[in-house]
Design a protein that fits this description.
GO terms for molecular function: tRNA binding. By secondary structure, the chain is an alpha+beta fold. The protein has helices spanning 3-14, 19-29, 35-43, 54-69, 71-74, 77-87, 100-114, 125-135, 138-145, 195-198, 205-208, 210-228, 375-379, and strands spanning 254-264, 272-277, 285-289, 304-308, 314-316, 319-321, 324-325, 327-329, 338-340, 352-355, 383-385, 391-394, 401-406, 409-410, 420-421.
Length: 422
């Protein structure tokens, strides 16, 4: 066999099955124009945004099938009421990132919502919130721009919009949550958290999600094993780290992230809800950050940053946050300014961020920080920006300086010197 034929044969063997793509294309064809054209433009001929897992791909196609075959039912009063209830806990239809299913639903809803008078915009508040989120997503704006005025943006006034009624099931009598399992004070997963967020969880929600937390912890451990060795610049895989002994900064899992989507929290004026790509095969993580009053949303979009990835997930006003954005706060306090810590210019999502020094540079971070041991809270007071604006951890005992860096360079604050990091 010739080399060319061998390569062609090998490509055939390892190439993904064609069936899902054909299923997607035939399903999208049922949408009709211009929704079909919008979805295909967004999906670049049907090859992208189907989801990153087989389960997600199946759900995306099922949603598009439903939208294509039940369009009229979805847009009736009862259909919108049902859809509104489905969207209460969701940012996206499938998983935690934008897919072709969202674009199809947005396109199907557009003719109805664009013709509504402002007084009716919040008859179904979760539908309106979802619709506005999707229409302002940059990939959707780009796809819509190729189709002329068919999907012109719809303006909403959210000043007096009703808050979403996030109901949860009553916990079973046998399920009790021990006091030790409740989140401890000071373990919030968002920087400069607003006072609203401190009492954010719906009463009883922690009980309902007791089982979910255990599953998330297990999933997080598996995800860490699967992606840890694939990050560009990451150290070779090592045995799981232990949290025995004194807390040290290398126990904290820092990685480069990029904000791929951001909205204001629907139920908290001071919070953003971000989708942050940190190089994981499971897609971007949902992160809630209390930065609305300190960094304009336009300065957050598409930004590269440093994410703390092994804090325990926390519910923030009904939205679960799976990481924390590392920020620098002026030595004069929040009013003096807050800035995102920036990785080197050529950094990529998922790049490992570590602390200089023989003791820390090659250490493996913990899979998840135990809130009871207050590891982050113990180490955090040593986080600072130097006179060079470089981010570092200063050992409180030896005063040794350990800069925070990737393989390509040191992470910095844009302007702040002597700032604390959290």
């Amino acid at each position: 066999m010739s080399l060319a034929r061998f390569v062609s044969h090998l490509r055939h063997l390892i190439s993904p099955p064609r069936a899902p793509t054909m299923d997607f294309q035939s399903t999208v064809a049922k949408l009709g124009s211009p929704v079909k054209d919008l979805v295909l433009s967004f999906s670049q001929n049907g090859t992208l945004h189907l989801g990153k897992q087989e389960k997600d791909k199946t759900e995306v196609i099922e949603w598009i099938e439903k939208i294509g075959t039940q369009n009229n039912e979805l847009l009736t009063g009862d259909g919108l009421k049902t859809l509104d209830a489905q969207l209460i806990p969701r940012t996206y239809l499938v998983n935690n990132y934008l897919t072709a299913a969202d674009v199809a639903l947005y396109g199907a809803l557009h003719p109805t919502i664009s013709k509504q008078p402002p007084a009716q915009h919040f008859a179904h508040p979760s539908v309106t919130r979802y619709f506005d989120h999707i229409q302002t997503s940059r990939p959707v704006l780009t796809a819509a721009s190729t189709l002329g005025p068919a999907f012109a943006p719809v303006a909403f006034d959210f000043t007096d919009a009703p808050r979403a009624d996030r109901k949860v099931e009553a916990p079973k009598k046998k399920e009790k949550v021990k006091a030790a399992e409740a989140p401890e004070a000071g373990t919030s997963k968002v920087p400069v958290q607003s006072a609203e967020a401190a009492t954010a969880d719906t009463p009883g929600e922690g009980k309902v999600q007791k089982k979910e937390k255990k599953e998330k912890k297990k999933d997080a451990a598996v995800a860490g094993e699967e992606t840890g060795g694939k990050k560009k610049g990451a150290a070779p895989a090592k045995a799981a780290a232990s949290d025995d002994g004194e807390p040290v900064p290398s126990m904290i899992d820092l990685r480069v992230g990029q904000i791929v989507d951001i909205i204001k929290h629907p139920d908290a004026d001071g919070l953003y809800v971000e989708q942050i790509d940190i190089g994981e095969e499971t897609g971007p993580r949902t992160v809630v950050s209390g930065l609305v009053n300190y960094i304009p949303i336009d300065q957050m979009r598409d930004k590269y940053l440093v994410a703390v990835c092994n804090l325990k997930p926390a519910n923030m006003r009904g939205v679960k946050s799976f990481a924390m954005v590392l920020c620098a706060t002026s030595k004069e306090g929040k009013d003096g300014g807050i800035e995102l810590i920036q990785p080197p210019a050529n950094a990529k999502p998922g790049d490992r961020v570590y602390f200089e020094g023989e003791q820390f540079a090659d250490a493996t971070p913990l899979t998840q920080l135990n809130p009871k041991k207050k590891i982050f809270e113990t180490v955090q007071p040593g986080f600072i920006t130097l006179d060079s604006r470089e981010a570092a951890w200063v050992n409180p005992t030896t005063k040794s300086v350990h800069k925070i860096r990737t393989k390509d360079g040191v992470c910095v604050a844009p302007t702040l010197v002597g700032a604390s990091l959290s």
